[in-house]
Amino acid sequence: MVLCILLQWMQIGGKQKYPAFKPGAKYGRGYCDGQCPHDMKVSSGRANVDGWKPQDNDENSGNGKLGTCCWEMDIWEGNLVSQAYTVHAGSKSGQYECTGTQCGDTDSGERFKGTCDKDGCDFASYRWGATDYYGPGKTVDTKQPMTVVTQFIGDPLTEIKRVYVQGGKVINNSKTSNLGSVYDSLTEAFCDDTKQVTGDTNDFKAKGGMSGFSKNLDTPQVLVMSLWDDHTANMLWLDSTYPTDSTKPGAARGTCAVTSGDPKDVESKQANSQVVYSDIKFGPINSTYKAN
Ligand SMILES: *[C@@H]1O[C@H](CO)[C@@H](O)[C@H](O)[C@H]1NC(C)=O
Ligand SMILES: *[C@@H]1O[C@H](CO)[C@@H](O)[C@H](O)[C@H]1NC(C)=O
């Protein structure tokens, strides 16, 4: 199973900011995120026709000159075998259009030169060593419904915590086992440790880290939910080994084969996939869930 469920916050980039632009969020417009996507057909209230190139492996998609950026908090990216929650820093608030270097396009070798932290800092149980924690029949059993709790601690923010509730029981988040110290939540120290162990660029820190991200929480947000497949990396970053030939800590992210996740296969074999999001709650810490 290689579809991914995304639950994410983003900022308003539609009707409110661009009043001449009528359709708005109701029609799926106004989307932006920390990847500054170029594949929005309407971007910042205008058609993204300039420089539009159809995507070679997706007849419904393409990329135009305009990217649409904003900060991003991935509350939930997951499927049957793996999950992650990921905070992306960002040095600029609100939705904004980008062109050129500001977009931080990977293809142009400018991934870390844009305004957004594209990599982010992710807490993914399997990736950080808790391989028996999440999946079919595991501690958090993905064959059963679950409540996913995400807590934003501190102002300015210092920590993003996770607990699950399943079968009436509260299940604490997994603990890491392949980093310099043991962690069970997203903190600045956890993020630094993951970047050090993997050797990845610490763009999260460079773009303002947890305290920088905290400022974004003072502005209006939009909750976005989707079910998607991945025409760029076949979702291997979530549920397989990625980079596919790496044996470094953090490369193994799940049990899927490195050959899995091709959208051609996903769309033909798993076309009936569905997800149910229900009982969505916001509230003071610990008020949104209880054990039975
Ligand atoms: C779960 O975490 C809380 C602290 O957040 C702790 O008090 C409790 O003992 C933990 N439960 C288990 C089973 O480890
Ligand atoms: C929330 O619950 C956890 C675990 O039971 C506890 O450790 C923590 O202090 C509580 N936080 C607040 C703000 O009540």
Shape: globular
How many distinct helices? Answer: 5
Structure classification:
alpha+beta
Q: Ends: how far apart?
A: 31 Å
CATH architecture: Distorted Sandwich
What is the CATH domain class? Mainly Beta
Number of separate structural domains: 1
What's the CATH topology name? 1,4-Beta-D-Glucan Cellobiohydrolase I, Chain A
Helix content range of the residues, please?
A: 10-25%
Major sheet size, sense and barrel closure:
5 strands, antiparallel
- CATH homolog superfamily: Glycoside hydrolase, family 7, domain
Give the strand tally: 17
Distinct ligands, ions and cofactors found in the model? 2-acetamido-2-deoxy-beta-D-glucopyranose
Runs with pLDDT <50, length 5+? none
Radius of gyration: 19 Å
Spatial order of the strands forming the largest sheet: 10-8-7-1-17
- The averaged pLDDT comes out at 91
Region (Disordered): 246-270
Catalytic activity: Hydrolysis of (1->4)-beta-D-glucosidic linkages in cellulose and cellotetraose, releasing cellobiose from the non-reducing ends of the chains
InterPro entries: ConA-like_dom_sf, Glyco_hydro_7, Glyco_hydro_7_sf
Protein name: cellulose 1,4-beta-cellobiosidase (non-reducing end)
Written account of the structure:
- With 292 residues, the chain is of the alpha+beta class.
- It has one domain (2-269): 1,4-Beta-D-Glucan Cellobiohydrolase I, Chain A (Distorted Sandwich).
- The protein is 12% helix and 25% strand.
- The chain has helices spanning 188-198, 203-206, 209-216, 236-239, 263-269; strands at residues 4-10, 42-43, 46-47, 53-55, 58-63, 67-69, 72-78, 83-88, 96-98, 121-123, 134-135, 140-141, 147-153, 159-166, 169-172, 186-187, 222-228.
- The strands form 6 sheets. It has a 5-stranded antiparallel beta sheet with strand order 10-8-7-1-17.
- Strand 4 and strand 5 form a beta hairpin.
- The two termini are 31 Å apart.
- One 2-acetamido-2-deoxy-beta-D-glucopyranose binds at residues 285-286.
